[in-house]
Specification:
Structural class: alpha+beta
Distance between the termini: 26 Å
CATH architecture: Single Sheet
Helix content: 10-25%
Radius of gyration: 14 Å
Number of helices: 1
Largest sheet: 3 strands, antiparallel
CATH topology: Rubrerythrin, domain 2
Strand order of the largest sheet: 2-1-3
Number of domains: 1
Length: 54
């Protein structure tokens, strides 16, 4: 499952969530610090893991 990064617009704290696609599409993400639903998704970096060595 993908890891999504968010910033709360109310308390300005950042947090990460692992969400299923269904949970992500519902848009019901809540800040774990202040319980606000006013959150903004941040761009997140990622890396790919492969079994082949170069």
């Amino acid at each position: 499952m993908p890891l999504y990064e968010y910033t709360c617009k109310d308390c300005q704290k950042g947090f990460s969530r692992v969400l299923t696609l269904k949970e992500y599409e519902s848009g019901q993400v809540e800040c774990p610090h202040c319980k606000s639903k006013s959150v903004e998704q941040k761009p997140a970096s990622f890396y790919a893991v492969t079994s082949k060595k170069s």
